[in-house]
Design goal:
Low-confidence stretches: none
Strand order of the largest sheet: 3-8-7-6-5-4
CATH architecture of the largest domain: 3-Layer(aba) Sandwich
Number of helices: 12
Mean pLDDT: 86
CATH class of the largest domain: Alpha Beta
CATH topology of the largest domain: Aspartate Aminotransferase, domain 2
Shape: globular
Largest sheet: 6 strands, mixed
């Protein structure tokens, strides 16, 4: 369980990238909250020595030991370090890697690049939870002159069952959003191994913001990694305007599409600690503690009724409280209860923080009449997990009594 010693270890490790004097903390909760400030200090130092948007020199510009280079940032920022460095997995198959401005940028630019070449048929729409990915897919127009391709799209926020990669044969490409799988986890490692063994192009997309910042909410950053992109030999190379010698034709088209859409990485978004094995190890331990706390939350929640129930998730990073009572969220009540219980919960979206968060109203599934609240699982001590459960039970019972 979380404690001050663990949080100081995380802060001291991150502070290697900021090099500031850390204050003394009275509790591990104070140390958690300070992470958000430390992230700003890391970014301030990083930006202070990163170059301008346009590289005006005649040479490839290399940043620190990260092997990052570019000529004009929006056209693509390249790193010779790939999946083996950032994810700790070395594929046997041919692979390519690039960053994007966010996880959703990775999904949308990849789908748009494929749509430029092929008529797409998504064979697994029911496995996609994130609504923005669904909106992108709905925006595609059918072109009968294009070759039809079937895509298997798997989303780790919806399911951790990836057996369809191996069991289903009627697809041409697979796209897997790995955002909810921690780097270094057994689940992600096994998924990479499975994809590496297959004889098809497999694309991995990811938002690094959620699980790869050690709970600092550092900034938006996405990535795309593909195994066997060279097998995509029937893409229309005439679509390529600018040739990047480092990439095979389709991945060249993918990077160019990202530039056209304006979803490429800007250098100030980059995490200087991304790929740091010590940070990854501490972060994996942190995520595992949060997942262990998830089970305690699920067992302790006492809000179920005919009008309300708990919606569990396979990744155990958050859960949903779904209800039909005619009442809205109450941020003021939630924050006041956190103060009363001496906790540091926040009323905000996203997940992966050290602290518990109460998400805004979201629509979980199309046609669902329930109001949905997302509660993220915190990295708390045993005592504070129990307090959090009591807080949530009191919050929802008070909220429902207002209808």
């Amino acid at each position: 369980m979380a404690n001050l010693e663990i949080k100081l270890q995380e802060l001291n490790l991150l502070n290697r990238y900021a090099d500031i004097k850390l204050p003394r903390f009275n509790s591990y909760l104070d140390a958690q909250d300070y992470k958000l400030r430390l992230a700003r200090e890391i970014k301030k130092k990083w930006v202070s020595f990163t170059p301008t948007v346009t590289n005006s020199s005649n040479k490839d510009l290399v940043l620190s030991n990260l092997n990052v280079h570019y000529k004009y940032q929006r056209e693509g920022i390249y790193s010779s370090l790939g999946i083996d460095y950032y994810f700790g997995f070395k594929p046997d198959s041919q692979n390519e890697f690039t960053f994007t401005s966010s996880g959703q940028s990775a999904n949308s630019s990849l789908l748009f690049a494929l749509n430029r070449c092929f008529k797409l048929e998504i064979t697994s729409a029911s496995t996609i939870w994130y609504y923005e990915s669904k909106l992108v897919l709905e925006a595609f127009s059918e072109d009968k002159n294009k070759t039809s391709k079937k895509i298997l799209f798997l989303d780790s926020s919806k399911s951790l069952d990836f057996t369809s990669l191996e069991e289903e044969t009627e697809y041409d490409f697979a796209i897997i959003d790995t955002t909810c799988l921690a780097i270094g986890s057994e689940e992600l490692g096994e998924l990479f191994q499975l994809a590496d063994s297959l004889k098809k192009p497999i694309f991995f997309t990811r938002s690094h913001l959620k699980l790869d910042t050690l709970g600092t909410d550092y900034g938006n950053l996405g990535s795309i990694c593909v195994f066997r992109s060279k097998l995509i030999t029937d893409s229309n190379e005439e679509l390529i305007v600018k040739r990047y010698l480092d990439y095979d034709p389709f991945f060249n088209l993918l990077v160019e599409t990202g530039a056209i859409l304006g979803v490429g990485l800007s250098i100030d978004q980059f995490y200087p600690f991304l790929g740091d094995s010590q940070v990854n190890d501490l972060n994996l331990a942190r995520v595992n503690r949060m997942k262990n706390n998830y089970d305690v939350f699920i067992n302790g929640m006492d809000v179920s009724s005919n009008e309300c129930f708990i919606q569990e998730t396979p990744h155990k990073l958050f859960f949903f409280v779904k209800y039909k009572y005619p009442v809205k969220m109450n941020a003021e009540l939630f924050l006041k209860l956190n103060q009363a219980f001496q906790l540091n919960g926040k009323y905000c979206d996203s997940f992966g923080f050290d602290y518990m968060t109460h998400g805004n109203i979201i629509k979980y599934e199309n046609g669902d009449d329930y109001t949905v609240v997302r509660i993220t699982c915190p990295d708390y001590s045993t005592e504070d997990v129990e307090k959090s459960i009591s807080l949530l039970n009191k919050y929802f019972k008070t909220l429902f009594s207002l209808n």
